[in-house]
Structures are given as structure tokens and as C-alpha cells.
Amino acid sequence: MLDQIQLIIESALPESTAYIVNPEQDGKHFQAIVICPSFEGMPLVKQHQVVMNALKAQLETTVHALALKTFTPATWDEKKQLYPYIESEEVPHEQSRRACKRPNKKRH
Predict the structure, then answer these.
(1) Domain count, the chain
(2) Cβ(35)–Cβ(16) under 8 Å?
């Protein structure tokens, strides 16, 4: 499912790079980080609408929830240190290079 979400986003926004994580590891709750040059000058709401519209069919069927963060390349360069699990060595080999698993957090 991670690869499918990534492919849909990157097909809708050909210049984009999408990172997809499933922090609950349940196949229903996802987080997406999308970096795209065409977001430059576009309001944040419009950026999210573009991505969510591309995923409309999945949101109606298989994806229960999607937390979304969108960035221009310049903004991503400034903020990527806040997302250390993206492109980290912890990315499992069986997943695509841009679909990664967030490390588990211990719950109290």
C-alpha cells in the first residue's frame, strides 16, 4: 500500500517526491510528506487539495486516515531535519526507496 500511495501522488505530481509511512503499521493510517517544485507560491490548502484529490479513490476505500505535510524543495531543505526517519538507514530493503517505515514509539 505504501508504494501504491507513493505512485499515485508522484503520478499526479510528476516533479514530486513522496515519502509515505505507516506509523501504526496497520495498513490504514498513513503519513505522507510530499516535496514538489510546483507548490511554490501555492497556498498550503491548495497543495493539500491537489494531493488529496489524487488519492480520492483510496481515501474512499482502503486508506482510513492520511496525515499530510507538503513542502517546496527550498522549504524541505530547511525542515527535513525534523523528519529524521525519512531516507534514514532504518528504511527496510523490501520497501521502495521513498516509502519508509517510521520507527516504533513506545506507548505508556
Answers:
(1) 1
(2) yes
What's this model's pTM, rounded to 2 decimal places?
Answer: 0.79
Cα gap 22→25, rounded to integer Å: 5
Q: Rounded to an integer, what distance in angstroms lies between the CA atom of residue 12 and that of residue 81?
A: 26
Whether residue 87 is contained in a domain is answered as no
**pLDDT tens digits for 10-42?**
999 999 999 999 988 888 899 999 999 999 999
Has residue 100 been placed in a domain? Answer: no
Backbone angles phi, psi at 46, to 5 degrees: -65, -40
Distance CA 105, CA 15 (A): 32
Neighbouring CB atoms inside 10 A of 84's CB total 11
Q: What is the CATH number of the domain that holds 29?
A: 3.30.300.90
Rg over CA atoms, the chain: 13
- Element spanning 34, H or E: strand 29-35
**Residue 15 in grid coordinates:** 516533479
Asked if the structure places residue 94 within a domain, the reply is no
